[in-house]
Amino acid sequence: MTTLVARLAAIVGEKNVLVDEAAKAPFLQDWLGKYRGAAAAVVRPGGTDEVASVLAACREAGISVVPQGGNTSMSGGATPDPAGRAIVLSLTRMNRIRDVDPVGNTMTVDAGVVLAAVQEAAKAAGRFFPLSLGAEGSCTIGGNLATNAGGVAVLRYGTMRELTLGLEVAFADGRVWDGLKALRKDNTGYSLRDLFVGSEGTLGIITGAVLKLFPEPKARATAFVSLRDTSAALSLLARVRERCGDRLTAFEFITGDCLTLVLRHVGDVRLPFTQVPPAAVLVELSDSDDDSALGARLEASLVDAAEAEIILDAAIAQGATQARSFWRLREGISEALVREGRAAKHDVSVPVAQMADFIVAADAAVAAAAPGVRPIMFGHLGDGNLHYNLLKAENTNDADFAAVAPVLTRIVHDETARCRGSISAEHGIGQLRVADMSRYKAPIELELMNALKAVFDPTGLLNPGKLLPDMSNH
Ligand code: FAD
Ligand code: MLT
Ligand code: ZN
User: Which ligand 1 atom lies nearest to the CA of residue 430?
Assistant: First the structure.
């Protein structure tokens, strides 16, 4: 290993190869504190050529590589296993905005650029990059691509795959594919780009990307709406869509129990109602129209929904500050959950129209299996994506809950499969869900995914133990 470490230091510079345990520590544990791994070294290349040379050196040494961006994965995807033989390849030094083209509405960036920096660079050019999620201050474009990140604006702009035009990828053998084309039309065969998006670092290391930019919204209208339950939320979604069309940018669902946790654990948040409602939705419209017209459109939709007794109450933000306070209620949920205690987290998607039935069925089955367990739900309802989290019953200890959690996860995922849904809507499989793949992916899908893995990474050195179940025992 010392030879390899010396060789890596020669490629990226000694100070960019971390072997000291304290220096490596932040790279070896995931955001949820669920996974702690080990690594021979953390390597921080400064450019694409260095990434390629590091990969070639590791391949020759037979050492596996775990790519890492902002390390905000919710499925342990960027955390190495505890064996300590792998290296972590951190992309965070590669943080250049390579080009901004306001005419072609594109931006070319290094993979290590933080999402918030891309949003700011777009704004500085009078344009808009719509991907938005709670971790945007630390997640990177490479991580967003490798996980096909979703977030709160998918309803209007799509997932990361739909926001991407071109990619640059370094392969396990050290070769580089320069697919950095700023083209909206390119019909020259299989889309390798779309294959790498969502591949979770198992096929190649993304080093650069060409992203789509959009006109900057001139106006936003935001409301926090209280309602009885998911069915009411789905009725409201249909009405707002009917009235506001594509101006609808976000439709975030939050249960009352979830709001209670945010109020308990997150400082400086305020509910725009006197009581915690049974459920709530954060609705946002955006447009190049002016504020007044958009606000009036949103108000009319909510008045209409109130008259139809779909909603209980609504607060329309009177300005950006109040809109921000509504978003803080939403963005504080992940943090509040971590503070409340170990949750069995599920990131599922089902067809939107089946969401209410899914929740009723899952709640009943979970309650039967573990009376008193607390479902804490929120999510991107407009995309059919629910974060269905389970907290232990008040009178249960952590060990007993940990013992029953896999049973509950099986129940939630079987119910998801019954709705022809997905056990990972946006967070990715990582190491958290790899064991579930054999149950919920068809054998032909796994066979073809493994065949692709064998083409791009024949020695299996890229992010081992993630995404693909070890087929050797099947
Ligand atoms: P990492 O965590 O570093 O890595 C994620 C995966 O990508 C790993 O498998 C890693 O090996 C691989 N990878 C990283 N960089 C590269 C690269 N350059 N080339 C190849 N593979 C690479 N996700 C959503 O989709 N929607 C949300 O709304 C959302 N909200 C979140 C809120 C919070 C508070 C947190 C903590 C996370 C949230 N996430 C959400 C999850 C996470 O932020 C995303 O998955 C994000 O895209 C990960 O980016 P990252 O740079 O942190 O990647
Ligand atoms: C979110 O939508 O906030 C996330 O995807 C994170 C989570 O599930 O905690
Ligand atoms: Zn989410």
Answer: 9
Burial class (CB in 10 A: 0-12, 13-18, 19+), 22: exposed
Q: What is the pLDDT of residues 182-232, one digit of tens each?
A: 999 999 999 999 999 999 999 999 999 999 999 999 999 999 999 999 999
Residues 6+ apart with CB under 8 A from 212: 105, 106, 129, 162, 163, 164, 165
Residue nearest to ligand 1 atom 18, measured at CA: 142
Which tens digit of pLDDT belongs to each residue from 233-282? Answer: 999 999 999 999 999 999 999 999 999 999 999 998 999 999 999 999 99
Q: Distances from the Cα of 345 to the Cαs of 134, 237, 327, 412, 433, in angstroms? A: 16, 25, 21, 10, 11
CA dihedral 38, 40, 42, 46 (to 10 degrees): -150
- What tokens were used for 71? 């390390």
Determine the Cα–Cα distance for residues 455 and 174; give it in Å rounded to an integer: 14
**Quick check: CB of 146 below 6 Å from ligand 1?**
yes
Q: Is there an atom of ligand 1 within 6 Å of 73 CB?
A: yes
C-alpha 285/C-alpha 239 separation (Å) is 13
Which residue(s) pair with 205 in the sheet? Answer: 170
